[in-house]
Write a sequence for this structure.
């Protein structure tokens, strides 16, 4: 049966078409409005995160809104806050390391001035006609100052390498007795010249974990200072 032969449908066909079109337009309008609101909210969230990143990079404080909300955006904001916090901590740590390195180098440079001044004065005096025994004493002092300068320069270079993280530290088992004997080896001749005796006490099996080479370097500096300041025929224990 054709629709034209149905009186009820035939009379209301136009109204039904208009009503259906109105419902379709209403649904489309609501869908479009929801999409626009969603995109607008998304844009505000992105703008908020952009402002947070910009202000954080400039070192300015900025409170990001709703960073602890649920959903993927909330998760993204939370991770963004964590990342910037870690970056700030790393930057602060790097600044502190630079300040420490600068202070250490400045301190070593200042310490270099003292032996340098002594060397200049002693060198000027050596040009004069002075007794042989005084000249030998001056030469010993010059040698001592040169050794100190050599140690300071090497310390500064090692410190720079440590701060630049170009040195790989090992973690190995170290026997303390073996460490002491290796550290003593370079200063045996000065100890023999000054007739200094060495006494080692303690457990021969004592051990710890570290880098043997750098531990020897540190121990050698301590022993070397002890030898230099120990009188002749003294004892190191």
């Amino acid at each position: 049966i054709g629709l034209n032969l149905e009186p009820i449908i035939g009379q209301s066909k136009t109204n039904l078409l208009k009503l259906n079109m109105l419902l379709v337009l209403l649904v489309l309008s609501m869908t479009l409005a929801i999409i626009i609101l969603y995109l607008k909210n998304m844009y505000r969230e992105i703008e908020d995160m952009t402002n947070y990143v910009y202000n954080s990079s400039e070192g300015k404080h900025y409170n990001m809104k709703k960073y602890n909300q649920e959903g993927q955006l909330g998760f993204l904001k939370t991770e963004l806050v964590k990342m910037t916090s870690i970056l700030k901590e790393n930057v602060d740590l790097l600044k502190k390391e630079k300040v420490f390195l600068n202070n250490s180098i400045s301190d070593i440079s200042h310490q270099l001035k003292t032996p340098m001044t002594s060397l200049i004065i002693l060198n000027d005096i050596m040009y004069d006609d002075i007794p042989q025994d005084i000249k030998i004493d001056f030469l010993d002092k010059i040698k001592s100052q040169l050794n100190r300068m050599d140690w300071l320069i090497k310390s500064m270079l090692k410190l720079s390498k440590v701060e630049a993280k170009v040195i790989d530290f090992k973690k190995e088992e170290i026997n303390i007795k073996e460490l002491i004997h290796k550290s003593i080896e370079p200063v045996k001749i000065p100890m023999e010249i000054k007739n200094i005796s060495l006494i080692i006490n303690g457990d021969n099996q004592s051990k710890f974990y570290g880098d043997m080479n750098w531990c020897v370097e540190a121990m050698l500096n301590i022993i070397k200072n002890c030898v230099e300041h120990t009188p002749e025929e003294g004892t190191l224990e």
